[in-house]
Amino acid sequence: LRPYQTQAIRWMLDRETVRKTLPAQYLKLKCRNVEDVDFFMYLDSGEVVDEMPREIPIPPGGILADEMGMGKTVEILGLMLYNRKKKRKLLELEESEGNFFDRTSPKKEIQLILGKQKKNLITCRKCGLRQHKKCVLKHSEQEPERYICPECWRSEPLVEAGTTIIVSPVSIKMQWASEITKHINDPSFKVFIYEGVSTSGWISPTDLAKYDVVLTDYNVLKMEIHFVAENERTSRHVKRFLRPVSPLPLIRWWRVCLDEAQMVEGVHNQTTKMVKTLPAVHRWTVTGTPIEKSMDNLYGLVHFLDYAPYNDYRIWLKLSRMFYQGNPRPLLHVMSRIMWRTCKVAVLDQLGIPPQTEVIHYITMSDLQNFFYRMEHAKCATAFREKANKLAREDTSMARMNIQTLNLLMEPMRKLRQDCSIPSVLHRSDQLTTKKMLTPTELHEHLVTSNEMDCKSQLRSVVSSINGMAAIHVIRKEYDQAIKMYKSALRWAEDYQGTISVDSLLQIHALHNILEVMRMQEQDGGQIFLEEVKDYEERCAKLEWKYIETYSNIVKGVELELKPTTEKIREVTSNLSGKIDGRWWRSVLYRVDRDAAKTANLLLKLNVEIRNHDVTARQIDTVRGLDYTLTVWLDKLAQNRAQLQKAFKSIDYFVTNLKPKHLWPADVKDPIEKLVQTAFLCHLDPELPDLSVQERMKRPTCVLCNVKSVLTQYECVIFQMELVEDGPATKTKGSWQMTVQELLLRQIHAFSKRDSLDPEILEEGDLYLAYVDALKAEFKQYSKYWVEINYTAAAYDELNMCRSRMQVVTVEELEESNTRKTIQQILDCEVDETLEDFKAQKMNSEREFVRLKGTLKYLQHLGSAKEIDVCPICQYTPKDKYAVLQCGHHFCVACAPEILRIARNHGNIIACVVCRHRQRVPDIYYVTCSQQDCSEEAITVRGNFSSKIVKIVETILQLKHQEPQVKIIIFSHWDPILTMLARALDQNDITYRAKTSKFYKGVEEFKDYSKELTCMLLPLKYGSKGLNLTEATHVFLVEPILNPGEELQAVGRVHRIGQTKPTFVHRFIVQQTIEETIHRTIQNDQSGLWSSKQVTVRHLEQLFQLEDDEIVLY
User: 619 φ, ψ to 5°?
Assistant: First the structure.
């Protein structure tokens, strides 16, 4: 032992063996009106009493808070050896033999934990119930003379034990076992690893008390709380099996020791509640970081120690407030009696640990990742400010926020910090939002695709504005101007085809309306060109068919998929000779009904299956009732299927004429138009949810909804579904599981197989169940068929809607029709204003479209592998860096100063020297020329990964080159980043271990040099607590850590007692990102804000400040 460890053990022995008190802190007061009475005011609570305060007893135990890596484990082991409980024979639980046998004879009932065997039983001497020996004596060295079952142990006195129970994180539980084996040579010193009653099985308190040390972890205690009497889960049914009981609260432990005690800083979580239920003589908490986030972290430790009255949070709050207000003496007075802390800097001469060096790796993002990061930085900074304004004030301390609010506030920062390591995007759906980490190739594809969608959106806005302007000119009867506008819209469509193109509906709108305007012009005596009209008509018809054809092909495809299911039903029906009336199962029931025992057995089995399948279903009492239930169901199946086929037959005229409107036969034209129109009014109108119930009830019911109603009724017969009312509509509730009736058929069929009935009956049963399966398959196709038909009707409605243009409506007309003004209607007084709005929208959209097109060219430029063209100004090929303009042309770094000087003199506008395209200076993008390192020492990293991942792998390869057996621990906040890093290590033949279900085994393999493992990948929240990994000499911190306590824990895994080599901490910081801001802020923290956990919302917002992107190419 080192001197400081000896001092720590002496202090702990003093805490356990000497009863001490804390002098009461009070102020003596006098009252003028009652001079003969002394009053006393408690300084900590402010309470005034008329009795002199007594000294406060200090509970035996305390907080061992030596800094990480200083041997706290050895100090606790020393305490256990120096202060063992005096051994005495465990008291036998006494109960007179007479009383035992005088009671009522025990019931012949067996309560089992496992299995159903009735051999090797043992009887409880209190309740008389019997259990299997292998279940309850699993950990007993010999069978007890007087056995007590787990349930009866609850009413017994606590077992006085000399055992120390050590609770630690699961990651270091086995490390405790190895440390005990390493440092304690006493063969009689016994250790038991407790995995929980649900895993290890029952161990009696007397057996558990025979061990010197019991090791368990916080995860076990979290689950164990459900096996304590006051926290047991209740059951609606009578108990048939012995309920597991936790033995831990049935023992008065000599010592309870919590390692990494910051895990129980919250007093209301399940783990803390379970820890508090453990009776103990001495209570100890061991932690290298007793204050991780705020002073309230100490309260969890004080609460566990039962340090009254300071375990009352109201009193503790007053102490902490005085501390924050600049008066630390009361808190120090309380804590100095129960806490011992030694810092490394104070005993460096005793430790003998080699020095630790910090290495900072500054990383430059690729142009692509930097482009993505800048966009995300702006979004996340805005999102953070919005959340901060809603959730907290600027001066609100992070330490004072509840965890839910803090998580919401930190989400934008968390996203941005992850993007520094690996770019990620969110995929949102109706039910789920998932995050995907992107490789550089995936990132490029994502950015190009997103930009193309944005370009298409702006192009849509431009053409929509032009069409709107044309409509205004039609209203003004300025037909020539309207035609020019529509032709302009069509030119945009001709200019942009391919990925970025004008929507076909916008083109149809322009073509349809330009033809109408030409006819209006002709009626007014104007001249039109027939060839031009014919051309527009053909183009319009082609676009309409192209739009409908997609839907038509899908409907025909589903129709083809439906036919085999219908044919399957015909095939099975023919094999049954057309007899689908249930003859086979009636034969089975007839034979069963003649045997009362078989009947009872079958009905019991069926009712059990019914209850397990649907607790609300009625039970079957008789065979005749069973026959009736199945017969009614089969009749409903046949009836509903026939109605469904008839319903779909009623819309054949629509399905068989999915073609352009001008090709519809005359006899179906009106019915199809009526179908589409009523479908819109019935359920396709997007404004329908905004209407009142009365207004919706006035709408007609379309033929498609009638078909849907029949489909829904059939669904409720063939599947476990039911109809529910939802306002004016009717919906289904349930799932596509088998019905109770189908379950009964399958159980009868299984019963007939077990009873070995005639093969003919069994074969018929197989065919009948195949018939039911075929019906369900057919229904699913019909359901899909209806959905696609409905989509097609909506497509025809879209065509009708896209042809309509803006119209002028009067207030009188609106009042007379009792309707609201639609988006296509304007008042006469709004005509001029609307035209100006369209012009402004067109101008803004054009400007944004040009900017986005320039961005797209830049992104395509980054993805191209072709050689760079010479600079058009100096005619030299760029070597280091060059600028890309919106038009796609570029200029080199040498020409930049003169170009920027000219731009500053022209309002920060630059003109391309090739095409004269004008743009703003901030909209210039930059490309860094890739330079290959051809030196012999150059290291090539295989795989397609982000800049940071490449740098980390490159650093590992360099270290391996210098020291082949080097061992490295890599910490990150986030598992997805470690997963991506593991993939990179695999591709570069670097061996590693990561956090798995068998974590301790992975740690042991990492420590073993014969396994030749290089890296250990650990999540910061899991792997930075308590692990002893002195075999490693390098710690990689993938991202800056906001919590200094967590960082100290991580670094402490290697820089600790037992380390014989110099150690290195590697920080990977991406330049010009929030990472660099965080690192610089924490390093330059002269005020101690970050180390004292007094960071506010304002300080966090300052982290989003990014250096201004000046164009500095020289």
Answer: -80, 155
Helices (H) and strands (E) in the chain, counts: 39, 32
Location of structure tokens 């390493």: 182
User: 1093: pLDDT confidence band, cut at 50, 70 and 90?
Assistant: low
Q: Mean of the pLDDT values across residues 777-795?
A: 94
Q: How confident is the model at residue 241 (pLDDT cuts 50, 70, 90)?
A: low
Range of the domain at 844: 440-528+810-861
- List of residues 6+ apart from 657 with CB closer than 8 A: 664, 665, 668, 672
Q: Is the model's pLDDT at 350 over the cut of 80?
A: yes
Q: Does residue 145 sit in the same domain as residue 293? A: yes
CA distance 584 to 591: 11
The position carrying tokens 């640990």 is 353
pLDDT at 112: 45
The 10 Å Cβ neighbour count of residue 294 is: 19
Tell me the pLDDT tens digit for each residue of 588-639: 777 777 777 778 878 888 888 887 777 677 778 888 888 888 888 888 998 9
Listing DSSP states for 133-183 in one string gives: HHHHSTT-SS--SS---HHHHTTSPPEE--PEEEEE-GGGHHHHHHHHHHH
- Residue tagged 């210039």 (tokens): 924
In 3D, which of 555, 796, 815, 570 has the Cα closest to residue 684? 796
Task: Decide: helix, strand or coil at residue 449.
Answer: helix
Whether the CB-CB separation of 265 and 294 falls below 8 Å is answered with no
Q: Give the up-direction half-sphere exposure of residue 122: CA atoms within 13 A in the CB hemisphere.
A: 19
pLDDT score at 1052: 83
Q: Which of 323, 348, 373 is a domain's end point?
A: 348
Give CA–CA dist 1010/999, Å, rounded.
18
Q: What is the pLDDT of residues 253-268, one digit of tens each?
A: 999 999 988 777 777 7
Cα torsion 346, 347, 348, 351 to 10°: value is: -150
What confidence score (pLDDT) does residue 844 get? 94
Domain presence at residue 33: no
- Is pLDDT at 726 greater than 50 in this prediction? yes
Residue 79 tokens read as 């305490």
Mean pLDDT of 49-69: 87
656 CB neighbour count, 10 Å cutoff: 10
Lowest mean pLDDT among 21-35, 269-283, 476-490: 21-35
Q: pTM for the complete prediction?
A: 0.74
**Rounded percentage of the chain residues whose pLDDT exceeds 70:** 90
Dig out the tokens for 153 from the structure: 């142990």
Those residues with Cβ within 8 angstroms of residue 799's Cβ, 6 or more apart along the chain or in another chain: 505, 508, 544, 547, 548, 661
Same-domain pairing of 492 and 521: yes
Distance set, CA 838 to CA 15, 453, 467, 822 (Å): 82, 22, 9, 17
The count of structural domains within the chain is 4
Structure tokens at 256: 């309870």
- The DSSP H or E segment spanning 841 is helix 831-863
Half-sphere exposure of 975 (CA within 13 A, CB side): 6
390-433 tens-digit pLDDT: 887 777 877 777 778 888 888 999 999 999 999 988 766 555 56
Q: Please tell me the distance from the alpha carbon of residue 355 to that of residue 350, in angstroms, as a whole number.
A: 13
Name beta bridge partners: 884. 890, 925
Q: Which residues are CB-contacts of 322 (< 8 A; sequence separation ≥ 6)?
A: 328, 330, 331
Between CA 475 and CA 479, with CA 477 as vertex, the angle to 5 degrees is: 115
- Residue 1084 sits in a domain whose CATH number is 3.40.50.300
Mean pLDDT rounded to a whole number for the chain: 84
Query: Is it true that the peptide bond before 309 is cis, omega within 30 degrees of 0?
Result: yes
Query: Are 517 and 560 part of one and the same domain?
Result: no
What sign does the CA torsion over 657, 659, 664, 670 have?
A: positive
- pLDDT single digits (tens) 885-903: 888 788 888 888 888 888 8
Q: Is residue 870 part of a domain?
A: no
Give the sign of the dihedral formed by CA 766, CA 771, CA 774, CA 779: negative
Degrees (nearest 5) of the Cα angle 749, 752, 754? 115
